[in-house]
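Before relying on records like the one below, remember that each one covers exactly one chain. Contacts with other chains, cofactors or solvent are not represented anywhere in the record.
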Amino acid sequence: MKGERLVLLVDEEPEFCSNFQKCLRDLNCEVVVASSREEACRVALDYNLNMVVLGNIMPRGEAFKLHWWFKNHPSLSEIPHVILDASPENHLTRGWRRDEGLRIDAVEYFCKPVKPDYLANSIEKLLEDAAEGIKVLIADDHTMVREGIRTLLNLQKDIYIVGEATNGSEAFNKSRELQPDVVLMDIVMPELNGIEATRRICSECRERVKVLMLSQYDDEQNFSASKEAGALGFVSKKGAGTQLLEAVRAASRGEFPGQGQRYVS
């Protein structure tokens, strides 16, 4: 499919889908339409999607199930979602339930009726913001650590999480596949430790991917090993807050005087 930006629209209204598809194509975005959860899952696995617009599909609750299918899929979880809810007069039978709405993980929310051209322009702006942002891969085997970093980064308009890894091998493979701007790499991980994963990433992706080491062990041995492996900086988990954000932004610009700088001591 031609075009660099691909949007999946999941909705049951053919006329709205057709008009929205035309408006986005006028903005140089391709659109794939699905009218059921099963069809949307097939499309998601076949194409490299940049965004999902979740509208109304029946029976009620199917859109929410699809939303969380994406969010729990290892290779699709970071695709941004835009919610397109039912109109107020249809909300009791077709819209998102209140308990579902409280659990939505989406970048924007719209409610019908909405003009297709307005929605298309809003989607294009979201895609442009994502394209210009700093793409980050989080590599840590502890779920709570990843969740904490994810929460912090998701609050930043200029930083986008493109993936997560739970071991060094996965971090290396996803770095090659996703080409993030910055990898936040834990040192102690199963299968392949963060030092060796960093060494491989810096060997194959040095010009594109920058690695920042994350560790709760802020000692000279880990710092020296990180520097020798090719990491751009070392961030202690004990201070991973504002300093982490500053380090990610600086690393993406390549503004540091040398590899292995200690950002948080």
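The mean pLDDT is 87.
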